[in-house]
Fold this sequence. Notes:
Chain B: Residues 68-89 are annotated as: Disordered. The complex is a heterodimer. By secondary structure, chain A is mostly helical. Helix content of chain A is 63%, strand content 0%. Chain A has 9 helices and no strands. Chain B is of the alpha+beta class.
Amino acid sequence: MRAELTDGDLIQLSxxxxxxxxxxxxxxxxxxxxxxxxxxxGTLADDLTAETFLTAFKSRTAYDGSRPDALPWxxxxxxxxLRGHRRAETRMYRALARTGxxxxxxxxxxxxxxQVTASEHVRVLATALARLNAGERDVLTLISQAQLSYPEVAxxxxxxxxxxxxxxxxxxxxxxxxxxxxxxxxxxxxx
Amino acid sequence: xxDLSLIEKFRxxxxxxxxxxxxxxxxxxFTVGAEPTRRSRWIWRLAPAAALAAAVAxxxxxxxxxxxxxxxxxxxxxxxxxxxxxVLPSNASDAAGLLRLAAAEVxxxxxxxxxxxxxxxxxxxxxxxxxxxxxxxxxxxxxxxINRKIWLPVDGSTAGxxxxxxxxxxxxxxxxxxxxxxxxxxxxxxxxxKAMRDWLYTVxxxxxxxxxxxxxxxxxxxxxxxxxxxxPDSRAALYEAAATIPGTILVKRADLAGRRGMAVSRLSGxxxxxxxxxxxxxxxxxxxxxxxxxxxxYPKGVVSRYTAQLRTAVVDKVGQLP
Lengths: 191, 322
């Protein structure tokens, strides 16, 4: 279905009609939750999704309505909130590396974790992710998991395009160093 | 297979969010988020009325232009010009001038006396528009009027009451209001314009000022006038302080609830926020929000919402009419 109003239109409209922001939530909440879930697990992602949209809603009058797609902005808010949960994030990567069981996939508190043991390269990957700094992890996951373009990542994180490139470059270098036994078809980090 | 595609597949099978978790997050946005932002307190207070109005509009399938409707009852009849109307200085030529004239008028008013256990009664008309079919065919629906009668105990320790009546259908909605310890009878506010200006520019806890301090002060002016009683000295100081807020404009013709008004206004993006005063007596009549710029899907120049203050009185009991 082709919506007539862009995210930018809806957010501008929400200055006088707050309910219009509900449509922005409906369009993107699942996507933002998925991104957060992949970094810190479902339980924390529930809270952070709520916090992301609450923050977005409160600062909606600051949004530039000429930007039609609100996703980069929302990812930026989510990434910023993740900064406060760096320890929880790396703890989960380490647990996965150590035990082969991913706490992030455990679902909600009252559910039993699915005891699928991760393959060796996933465990190595988790170790490498735990060692990246937060800025590198933001860029790496926004590019490869959220599928944002370089300029969108720059916009989301409020950093220059050059910084996006350099962070991605160093992140990939570290990943490749951690996974030397994998034969990479494409070892460059061109766009 | 490269390193980026490994990350792409990493945790690709996370479970989707539980619908009830998303529903909670969505609701929290409007409840928790509504309080601190500019204008949203008004919006939030109006929300039940807006929902009500929308429901009524949908049920009836008919909407009418507020401007073309018969005038809402005015608090008192307008006498012939020159008879009972006070003698006033010459007309205001700018917003600051109008505010100063309004201040001079209100300062001469007697103080409204209240006794222990008494209740303040406010009656107003509120009207909020609506946008229907947001995701398919967004359509602007003009404001629907609701008569609002509210009883607020002066000491704030007992429950109040709000009765909303949909003007067109006569449907009534009773909303009990829990005692929240706050009084609508404000006595501690400054009575001198300089101190009042400082107060107006003091950002309340939890209030974000994204549009800058002037917009926040402009907003606080409206908050202070809505369903609250200020002593004439404080109200005069409030108008005088508002006269010093930069960026205001005078709108010479801004009628409200059948009374001829002039507005002091401030633009915020494509939207203009008007405070309207009677063009002859300089009495505060109410507020209006006008979409003056490009804002989809609004027709340009329409009134998005308005309130008209009808009367303020002291009564002995909640639910009692003056």
